Amino acid sequence: MDSSQGDMSSIQVFSCFQRTSMNYKKNTRIKKGIVLTAFGSSTEQGQTALENVHARIAANFPDIPINWGYTSVAIRRKSKAQGREIDSLPLAIGKSLEEEVTHLAVQPLHIIPGYEFEDVQRTITAFRHIPKGFNEISLSPPLLFSQTSLHKLGNALLQILPSTRSKDEAVLFLGHGSNHPANSFYPALAYWLQQQDPLLFAGTVEHWPDQESIRFHLFKSGAKRVYLIPLFTVAGIHAQNDIAGNDPESWQSSLEQEGFECIPVLKGLAEYNTFIDIWLQHLNLAIQAFQTIPKY
Ligand code: CO
Fold first, then answer.
1. Distance from the CA of 71 to the center of ligand 1, in angstroms?
2. Which of 6, 44, 140, 293 is spaced 20 to 30 Å from 148 by Cα?
3. Residue 129 catalytic?
């Protein structure tokens, strides 16, 4: 099986509840739609990054309407207070329905298939049962979901290594982390990165691999300078406070206290074309899957 087939089989396409009476069979037209879903961001930089993702996806699918669904209640509340209302995922899917979309491709911008992703799955399952709803809804996977995807994301990370880095300097990618079993993608990625270059590391800000274990490996590596790169869709509050910054608990502060020189690179994955390319590939596969459906 080649890797693109591996990706294809990971896209879940759900047929939706349809009444079979003649009335409903008349509806043979196809209108495709896209919903992009992300946790959301309260920072200007984060919002700009998501707008950049939107622009690239819209340019690739000029005839397909795109709606955004933000999964974080706190971010939506904050955004509203700033005078900028953003939609929840059910609202975004509902808007696509109002636009008379029949085939909806949902692309999450999440990193691992953790709790947030499971919530997206549940929301889609609920929409499958809406009367007079979509003919089909597809759900593409997050960035990490399989061995193939691990290698793909790993290779994409190799492409964003700082150009100023010299061979004896370390690079530490830091994700959010979760107590969901899918957190195991982070140590798996760390292992893969180590195989490519022993000075590449990966950890998480809230779970494991944690500061203690990473610090141990950094000491052993002999590196003096460490680049800190967020493994987050957007470089928001976590990147600014938990990775970089003067907070004594931040990775930068605690590593500097141990004598390392830290250089944070505060850009989220959504700010690099190489990751947007992966989301575009997923969407292309999802939209192709719609084209193969029998017309009835
Ligand atoms: Co958090």
1. 13
2. 293
3. no
The pLDDT tens digits for 218-265 are 999 999 999 999 999 999 999 999 999 999 999 999 999 999 999 999
Catalytic pick among 103, 176, 217, 282: 176
pTM above 0.85, yes or no: yes
Tens digits of per-residue pLDDT, 169-188? 999 999 999 999 999 999 99
Enter the tokens of residue 53: 């993702």
Instruction: Kindly give the distance from the C-alpha atom of residue 231 to the centroid of ligand 1, in angstroms, as a whole number.
Output: 13
